[in-house]
Amino acid sequence: MLMMALAMGFLFNTGSNKARMALLALLGAAGVAFLFTLSRSGWLSFFPMIATFVVMTKRFRVPLIAALVLLAIVVPHFAPKEAHQRVSNTFVTWKTYNVLGSKIGIDESTAARIDSWKVGVDRWVKRPILGYGIPAGAVIDNSYTRVLNETGIVGFAAFMWMLATIFSITRNVNMTMPDDEFAQSMSVGFMSGFMGLLLFSAAAAAFIIIRIMEPFWFLVAIMAVLPELEKDAEPVA
């Protein structure tokens, strides 16, 4: 999802037709891999990622919405059977929840992720200030209550500050470097992927998964230094 967001960021900002064709091919290959992850939380993260693109790319807003409608029609017919089975298995009743007066049955995996929020909050109230330390001593499949358990409200506040700072840095690049093709591609793509990652983190401890965090923090570093690099590149009068 994060790599697809970056590819789309460059697709919408490049002036080269050859680059567009290469990026479209990359997106197609990544899209197939994305479906075969069979990650339902990953699939859900696609929606805030795309919504961010719709908000940030005014010039391509209408074509993007049209492409999304087309994808919504086409993908269910061409998605692999494994993806169809993964979706249908979500509602195989293993545990029942009462939602707004209606009973909804879901599978064991989804129930475990929902219950991990309750476990996280129940454990946190016993040690609310500094938490239990790392690791917290319980399996918690989301980043938010996991941080609460491990570091308490003090660590959670720092975690929220970190996320807000990443958002601010990326937005600053997007707003202050409007004529820089690379900066616009990176900022729009990374911001969209970041929004998707925040939702994904509600069902997975994404911020401790090395294969996600290695490229993520490298991209954050790029966002942080881009304004300084532009200043260094300006000719001295």
Average the pLDDT over all residues and give the rounded result. Answer: 89
Q: Mind describing the biggest β-sheet?
A: 2 strands, antiparallel
Q: Which structural category do the helix and sheet elements fall into?
A: mainly alpha
Q: Helices and strands, in N-to-C order?
A: HHHHHEEHHHH
- Fraction of residues in H or I helices: over 70%
Q: How many discrete structural domains?
A: 1
Number of helical segments with 4 or more residues? 9
Distance, first to last CA: 43 Å
Number of strands: 2
- State the shape: flat
Strand content: under 5%
What does this structure look like?
Helix content is 71%, strand content 4%. A two-stranded antiparallel sheet has the order 1-2. It has one domain (2-232). By secondary structure, it is mainly alpha-helical. It is flat and about 55 Å long.
